[in-house]
């Protein structure tokens, strides 16, 4: 069984970090850029090398990924399937505002994300299907090019989902999973009977 190594980098702070921005294309703040740069530098100092960088097309991921790929002379692929969850009517709205206007719905969404979602937004099932499709594509691409280790520049929701799957916890635990701004999370990606699987590994 081939195990591929994924290092998942969450984008740093953005201009709309205090909101649910989902598919909104806000930019990194200077601090957000430095958060990502600091994390990557620590891993480069530890001699960690990637074969490819794969990024969400949203600019809070893509702009940093493009600069890093050029710096490290690595191929850069964009994958639209690994964008953040779409929050519908809640896009760009501060959670405090949602709490004041729809406290019960927000509380249900936090506690039972498998059953509740943002009005006119993506359900967790739809989000999971999309992200899994994206990582199936990534698995195939890595196999085709004999790439063993990829840096994936993506979003908190994606990292939380994959960590939840890797730990084999129920999806209602999704929002308790770690995914700090600008931090790196290491997972292994395997395929068994045409189904991709994630498992945790110690970051090197």
How far the N terminus sits from the C terminus, by CA atoms, comes to 21 Å
Main sheet specs: 6 strands, mixed
Q: Uncertain runs with pLDDT below 50, 5 residues or more?
A: none
SSE sequence, one letter per element? EEHEHEEHHHEHEE
What topology, given as strand order, has the largest sheet?
4-3-6-1-7-8
The structural class is alpha/beta
Mean pLDDT, as a whole number? 94
Number of strands: 8
**What global shape is seen?**
globular
User: What is the alpha-carbon Rg in Å?
Assistant: 17 Å
Keyphrases for this structure?
204 residues; alpha/beta; six-stranded mixed beta sheet; two-stranded antiparallel ribbon; 8 strands; His_Pase_superF_clade-1
Summarize this, please?
By secondary structure, the chain is of the alpha/beta class.
Write the layout of secondary structure elements.
Layout: E1 4-10, E2 19-20, H1 30-45, E3 52-55, H2 59-72, E4 76-78, E5 93-94, H3 95-101, H4 103-111, H5 124-144, E6 149-154, H6 156-166, E7 184-192, E8 195-200
Describe this structure in words.
It is a single chain. This protein is of the alpha/beta class. The chain has helices spanning 30-45, 59-72, 95-101, 103-111, 124-144, 156-166; strands spanning 4-10, 19-20, 52-55, 76-78, 93-94, 149-154, 184-192, 195-200. Strands 4-3-6-1-7-8 form a six-stranded mixed beta sheet, with helices on both faces. It is globular and about 50 Å long.
């Amino acid at each position: 069984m081939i195990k591929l190594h994924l290092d998942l980098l969450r984008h740093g702070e953005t201009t709309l970090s205090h909101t649910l921005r989902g598919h909104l294309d806000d930019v990194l703040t200077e601090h957000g850029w430095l958060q990502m740069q600091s994390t990557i530098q620590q891993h480069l100092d530890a001699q960690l090398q990637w074969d490819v960088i794969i990024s969400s097309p949203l600019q809070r991921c893509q702009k940093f990924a493009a600069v890093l790929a050029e710096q490290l002379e690595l191929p850069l692929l964009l994958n639209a399937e690994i964008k953040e969850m779409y929050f519908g009517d809640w896009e760009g709205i501060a959670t405090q505002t949602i709490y004041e206007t729809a406290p019960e719905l927000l509380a249900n969404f936090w506690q039972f994300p498998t059953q509740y979602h943002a009005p006119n937004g993506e359900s967790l099932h739809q989000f999971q299907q999309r992200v899994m499709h994206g990582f199936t594509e990534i698995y195939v691409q890595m196999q085709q090019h004999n790439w063993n280790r990829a840096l994936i520049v993506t979003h908190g929701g994606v990292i939380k989902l994959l960590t939840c799957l890797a730990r084999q916890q129920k999806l209602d635990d999704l929002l308790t999973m770690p995914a700090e701004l600008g931090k790196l999370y290491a997972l292994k990606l395997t395929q068994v009977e045409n189904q991709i699987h994630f498992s945790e590994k110690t970051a090197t």
